[in-house]
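user: Kindly work through both lines:
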Amino acid sequence: MARRLFVVLFFFTMVKSLWSQELLCNVQVQAKEIAGVDKTVFTEMKTAVFEFMNNRRWSNLNYLLSERIECTLIFTITGATQGGDEFNGTLNIVLQRPIYGTDYNSVVLNMIDDKVRFSYVPSQTMEYADNTFTNNLTSLLAFYAYILIGLDQDTYSLYGGTPMYEKALTVVNSAQSTRFTGWEAFESNKNRYHFAENLLNSAYQSLRKFLYEYHRKGLDTMSKDVGGGRTVIAKSLPYLQEVFNKRPGLYLLQLMIEAKRDEIINIFSEASPAEKIEMINIMSGIDPSNGSKYERVTKR
């Protein structure tokens, strides 16, 4: 009995040791325009952000090492205070998702947050706790960690990302009335508040249906059935159109179109004439400034 118990405990210990943090996040810090600040500050900043994103468990979900979510954060620092402990610039956030049966990674999100301002002192402790605003850098990172995990979950199960979006909204709520921009509802209709709000708003749930059906039922089946997967993707495009008809300028809709435009064009380049026309009609209608790009599929 003792031996059997030992074997069971050993098995669960080994399984647990295979579980990992959720994110596999590449971090870059670009600061070519900054003078008068020791460049080692930016090296240490990169390391601190990398460790904060990758070494922390953001949920109670269990991920294998091979299942970690691939993402990239690129900080472009364009300004610094004279003391060199407060910085501002932009943050490029990219999320990729592996497609079943292939070595292809599909871009789920590729956006730039242009309201990035934070304090950073080398060797400082990167402190963060839900429902508490400690500093803008860790709140910013926590917000996007939750958003990235939620979006990834949404591509695998319908509305699977809801708990993560709710956590992202708690970060937003904790950051209200701070001196940092990007958090308040009335400040802009394209900021972190509206990103989280759009994802949780029941009026725009069709966008999350799109994420699930496009990726899980469409792309994931194309390694075995290209035509069938493309048909599913074609049927998912009206979800985008549905939200466009409700609110053409919705921030989340624009982010999804931006991430998927080139991929959709590539997918339909080998489609039937009827499928091409249907795609062009939908995508040109909701993304009119890029209509000519969609029409190129007719020439392939």
Summary: The chain is about 50% helix and 15% strand.
